[in-house]
Amino acid sequence: MSDTTTAPAAHDAGHGGGGHHEDHTRQYVKIWAILLVLLVISIIGPELGHPMLTLVTAFGIAFVKAYLVIKHFMHLTVEKKYVGFLMLTMLAFMLVFVAGVSPDVMKHSGQRWTNDAAEAVVKKGLAEDGHGGGHDEKKPADVPPPPH
Amino acid sequence: MSAFRPIATTRSATGISTGKLAVWWLIASEIVIFGGVLGSYLMHRLGHPEWASQAAHTNTWAGAFNTLVLLTSSLAAVLAHNAAEMKDGKKAAKYLWLTIAGALIFLVVKSLEWSNEIHHGFTITSHTFWSFYYTAAGIHGLHVIIGAIIMAVIARDAAKGIDLQRVEAVGLYWHFVDIVWIFLFPLLYIAK
Q1: Which pLDDT band holds residue B13 (cuts at 50, 70, 90)?
Q2: Cβ contacts of residue A38 below 8 Å, gap of 6+?
Q3: A43 in contact with B at a CB cutoff of 8 Å?
Q4: Interacting residues of B34 by C-beta distance below 8 A, sequence separation 6+
Q5: Which candidate in A1, A2, A3, A4 is best for mutational testing of the B interface (most B CBs within 10 A)?
Q6: pLDDT by residue (tens digit) across A11-68?
Q7: Would you call B162 and A1 a contact, using CB atoms and an 8 Å cutoff?
Q8: Which residues in chain B touch residue A21, judged by CB atoms under 8 angstroms apart?
Q9: Residue B108: helix, strand or coil by DSSP?
Q10: Dihedral of alpha carbons B27, A35, A57, A141, sign
Q11: Can you tell me the distance from the alpha carbon of A71 to that of B27, in angstroms, rounded to the nearest whole number?
Q12: Is any Cβ of chain B less than 8 angstroms from the Cβ of A68?
């Protein structure tokens, strides 16, 4: 069996080079410890019941955690630039999709249209909540669209 | 022997080994897949305040524990990459097996969680919230299973010092799976 690794493959990300590689174990463990602290905060924050605090601790921290993983574990910041652009392009596609669809999904009426079925589902679901649905009781809130 | 090995995994025509570039392209396509599912869920969740009563039934502690497991398995994956960079195939394999152990723990917790939820009547057809819940977590779980299988193949070779460059490639995939869960956790378990 010949040599199974190649220099370009093992060090092409620009965070090694020259065949010598340092041991980064401590740095990785440190990042992992930070991620765990962030996880604890993201669990405790929403327990306090403040909507803005929930938004920041649950969702804001998710972005911070993702950034740490992307930067330190995936090494995207030292990867060839076009890889980062490729990822951003995909995220842009996703945002275009959400921007295009969200008015139809999140709103139940517009200038010349109404979504009666969706509105009925929301009303029925909220009414059921008002009557205190039990945890073990299966209460599907979905209802078929109203007859025309 | 070497004539039978695919050169695409080690050849570099773009400044990145072709094998690793393929994984980045895979991740790019996965962003659209998971982005579509999570984006759709988010829009529906914001448009349907009544879903809160359904979301209240998800087990936050199970989700949090699985987040801990995946973050730890990501650490093991990057340590495997670190070992592979130092040409220590045996150590890289050891860390890959630890990553696989994390995947298995994740799947066991998930299956227990799902069993409990299905037992209480929260099935994929009982409510649109649960349709999204099982679809998003199910696709993610499928990625965990696939990742674990690929890692087992790579770990077996890495232990013999074969194709160590693949350790980084599978690690990239695994970190992406971890990132998807980082967003699934608050969306499905915390927003109640």
Answers
A1: confident
A2: A61, A64, A65, A68
A3: yes
A4: B136, B139, B140, B180
A5: A4
A6: 454 444 445 678 899 999 999 999 999 999 999 998 888 888 888 898 999 999 999 9
A7: yes
A8: 82, 85-86
A9: helix
A10: positive
A11: 15
A12: no
Contact B133, B58 (CB under 8 A): yes
Chain B CB within 8 Å of residue A53 CB = no
Distance CA A138, CA B120 (A): 8
| pTM of the shown model | 0.86
Phi-psi region of A107 (alpha: psi -120 to 50; beta: other; left: phi over 0): beta
Q: 3-class DSSP state for residue A107? A: coil
Give the ipTM: 0.92
pLDDT recorded at residue B4: 58
Which residues of chain A make contact with B47, given a CB cutoff of 8 A?
A: 105-108, 118, 122
Quote the CA–CA distance of A102 and A125 in Å, as a whole number: 21
**Of residues A4, A94, A140, nearest to B32 (C-beta):** A94
**B17: DSSP letter:** B
The DSSP element (H or E) to which B97 belongs, if any, is helix B89-119
Q: How far is B125 from chain A (nearest CA, A)?
A: 9
